[in-house]
Amino acid sequence: MLSLLKKLTAATPAPVPEQSAAPVADKVDPYMLGLYDATLSGWFNKETGELFTGFPVTADDILIDVGCGDGGNVQFCGNRGARIIIADIDEAKVEATRQRLADTPARSVECHVTDCNPLPIADGTATRVVSTEVIEHVEDPAQFLSELVRVGQSGALYLLSVPHPSSEDLQKGIASPDYFEKPNHIRIISEEQFKAMVSEAGLEIISHSQYGFYWSMWMLLFWEAKVDFSNPDHPLLHHWASTWQAVLDSPRGAQIKEALDGVVAKSQVIIARKP
């Protein structure tokens, strides 16, 4: 279940394609559509080299991804030529990400299987720190964030994300019961709580945004469809993907997406800096 939830809430539901383009097949691939939707929200900008808007990555950077999952985020960073350090509690995920990074021009790749308490990484190592959809799982968010801050250099940029409460509240009573149980989402984090957590850890918040209406609705329908995540073949999911594709293709699709992302978002994202 944890692997399923990490995939559903991750910024990259599928490997980043060479060119971001809206899927056009009759039967829309929900993951590729989700990836395209994410690029519209500011992820994976190859032209600017930003993993997310306001978070550029270059070959000069030392980037740590804590809770790397399947490695979609860090693959983008490896393709930028950065030195990469990954950490995750799941040994299989770390190995899969290591293999994924082997095909990138990353300067070097360092891997750690760890619960991050503490991180086996020296103080002031990174110029970039990424941790997406992790804080909602950990027992002690303050301790976890203190480790992230410790391993960053002065001036390091941080990209942090957690599920948005609008989407989490939508799942109540519909999601599988263990969705809100350890080791999955053991807390719902409000916008104000998220900002307070980051500020109290000693970071300066640069931006706070949200995105992911598409995935919020897909996830809701996934629970109702009662299918296996490895093969989510169900009319509800097919119809939703086709509908969202049609919305994005419409003349005001981007405007509609932005409006809906502001109402029910899958994730909230903070870009911050270590003083």
Explain what this protein looks like in three dimensions.
By secondary structure, the chain is α/β, with parallel strands linked by helices. The protein has one domain (2-273): Rossmann fold (3-Layer(aba) Sandwich), CATH 3.40.50. Helix content is 37%, strand content 21%. The chain has a 7-stranded mixed β-sheet, with helices on both faces. Strands 1-2-3 form a 3-stranded antiparallel β-sheet. The longest helix is centred in the C-terminal third of the chain and has 15 residues, at 235-249.
Structural class: alpha/beta
The helix content is: 25-40%
Number of strands: 10
SSE pattern, N- to C-terminal: HHEEEEHEHEEHEHHEHHHE
Rounded radius of gyration (Å): 18 Å
The residue-averaged pLDDT reads: 91
CATH superfamily, by name, is Vaccinia Virus protein VP39
Domain module tally: 1
Global morphology: globular
Multimeric organization: single chain
**Widest β-sheet, arrangement of strands:** 6-5-4-7-8-10-9
Distance between the termini: 37 Å
Percent strand: 15-25%
Kindly report the CATH topology.
Rossmann fold
- Sheet having the most strands: 7 strands, mixed
- The first-level CATH class name: Alpha Beta
Quickly give the CATH architecture. Answer: 3-Layer(aba) Sandwich
Detail the poorly predicted runs: 1-25
* Count of alpha and pi helical runs: 10
InterPro entries: Methyltransf_11, SAM-dependent_MTases_sf
GO molecular function: S-adenosylmethionine-dependent methyltransferase activity
Protein name: Class I SAM-dependent methyltransferase
Pfam family, one: Methyltransf_11
